[in-house]
Design a protein that fits this description.
The protein is of the alpha+beta class. It has 3 helices and 6 strands, in the order E-E-H-E-E-H-E-H-E. It starts with 17 loop residues before the first strand and ends in a 6-residue tail after the last strand.
Length: 152
């Protein structure tokens, strides 16, 4: 495994698909045995600043329930549908606990002041293993939150 400088930005990383923040030893048990994640999509030109904000919030414990995070990089990914966007993945679980996951999602939208899309989606790792929209998966989320329901 290669060591990547923790200050590397998503736009400059071309060898790895992802940059990570948080507990590298996080296990399924840390996520209630059912890993899942909230996905925040950003236009590529805004991704570096959003990642810096997410790391700052995570490091200062302002993302309650988020166990660890990762962000897509500039390396082309065949599982990606829209190359104009990047994504910040915020892991939390258990995936079947809808109300707690929705509370985490609401807090994440507020903390990140997320306004890039009308909705934010949560999906389980089982869904990820089944494929992405780019690979033909039709239903690719468990929960959705309308951003307008959280931010005024």
């Amino acid at each position: 495994m290669m060591d990547i400088d923790p200050d590397t930005t998503p736009s400059t990383e071309t060898t790895a698909f992802w940059l990570s923040e948080g507990r590298s030893d996080a296990s399924d048990a840390d996520l209630g045995g059912e890993p899942g994640k909230w996905m925040l999509f950003y236009p590529r030109p805004k991704l570096d600043a959003a990642w810096a904000a997410a790391k700052r919030l995570y490091r200062s414990n302002e993302l309650p329930g988020v166990v660890c995070m990762k962000v897509s990089t500039a390396r082309p990914n065949p599982r990606c549908r829209d190359t104009g966007d990047g994504v910040i993945i915020c892991y939390c679980g258990p995936a079947s606990a809808e109300e707690p996951m929705r509370r985490i999602g609401h807090a994440l939208i507020r903390a990140m002041d997320y306004r890039e899309n009308a909705t934010v989606s949560y999906k389980s790792d089982l869904q990820t293993m089944g494929g992405t929209a780019a690979t033909g998966q039709r239903v690719n989320h468990l929960y959705r939150i309308r951003v307008s329901d959280v931010l005024s």
